Amino acid sequence: MFFHPMDIFIFLALGISIWAQFKVKGNFNKWSEVKTRTGLSGAEVARQILDSNGLHNVPIEVVPGMLSDHYDPIKRVVRLSEPVYYGRSIASVSVAAHEVGHAIQHQQSYTALVLRHRIFPMANFASGVAPFLFIGGFLLQQLSLIGIGIVFFSAAVAFQLITLPVEFDASKRAKNLMLSEGILFNDEEHGVKKVLNAAALTYVAGALMAVFELLKFVMIFLQGNAEE
């Protein structure tokens, strides 16, 4: 009863997501073995780019975990995993610069980032509520619950779609800033692209899966209305 033709596309997107995760880890591990010619660590690169952009008040913290790196817009702090913070490889500086890219986006009120921050609470709440509405709608055979679930889930999908330009822009800023500030040499750009592109693919796969999931429920809802 729950299988739908759109599930094929959802499974395909899931497969891409799993493959992307392997690509991220594989590229990070590969380029972690390649040291930068400047010899700078991820933390040093992050500090240099932050300071050169007037973000002296943004601290850098080291956090446990693998690829747990992120920028906290609420506390305005860049958090780097240990391999990135201490590492002096192409992979380490790429990830560090990417997270700093988000801090610069915040400083400049980058439109997509501002929008993502604003809808995050609603999207977070909606993503938790929507599954229960869908399940309730199917079990009780109430299309109205599925319709409400679609509205809630749309907010979560919108969040994922808005995340794409935010992540791509942060990666573009990271590469350009490292080149302009002499942190990265032209012949090292290839490795940076490999690391950042693999990471971006995970967001693309996640967005695809969410979109296909939404379309599936929309089609079920429309089909149910047509049969009434």
TrEMBL record:
Organism of derivation: Siminovitchia thermophila
Domain of life: Bacteria
Protein name per UniProt: Zn-dependent membrane protease YugP
Signal peptide feature range: none
Alphabetic keyword roster: Hydrolase, Membrane, Protease, Transmembrane, Transmembrane helix
Pfam families xrefs: Zn_peptidase_2
Entry annotated with the keyword Mitochondrion: no
Gene Ontology BP annotations: proteolysis
Parts of the chain that traverse the membrane: 6-22, 119-140, 146-168, 200-222
Molecular function as annotated in GO: peptidase activity
Presence of the UniProt keyword Transmembrane helix in the record: yes
